[in-house]
Input
Amino acid sequence: MDLSQFKAYVRQAEFLSDSDYRRGYAYGLRRFYHGETFGDNIIIATMKERGGLLKEGIIDGLTGRGPANK
Output
């Protein structure tokens, strides 16, 4: 993923209505883009454990997918 794609996904995520998905997605996407220099594995595990849209968001972000319309 290049910088322009990263910025495009960040902008798209800003307009998502569900705050849990948006928060998880933003964190996961930053981890995907920056690698292990960003974020903490414990925070990621906690977000996944909480389930729901927070889990969906972080998984989408970590895999570098575009944000889902949630």
The chain has a mean pLDDT of 93. Residues 27 and 58 are 7 Å apart (CA to CA). The radius of gyration is 11 Å.
